[in-house]
Amino acid sequence: MPFTELCIYQVKPQKAAEFEALMSEARHILEKQEGLRLLRLVRRGYRIDMEQIKEGLPPLKITRIVKSVKYMLFWEFDTREHYGAAQKSLYDSYWKSIERCLIAPHDKYLGEELFAWNHPVAD
To answer: What does pTM read for this prediction?
Structure first.
């Protein structure tokens, strides 16, 4: 059963470029991890409230940084064991450098997939 992690990073605004460069470097190690099925890094750039949702409006672009720049790392593995090995690889290589960019320890949300859907890509 696929195993997934969603990790939330709150990055110091003055360290955002450094964080993105580190994650770009780490990507090359992460992509080679055995059992990796999916890897995504997203920078939060939009917000939405209930009024927009009720009206079916698109989200609003975030125009200023208040406290931190938020990133979400989403990665999925075929097994928990491969996930654990990948965590060790990240810990041994980039963990300390990444932590120096953060305003608080990152949050990890872990679980097994309940369902998935991917839109087929047209040729």
So the answer is: 0.89
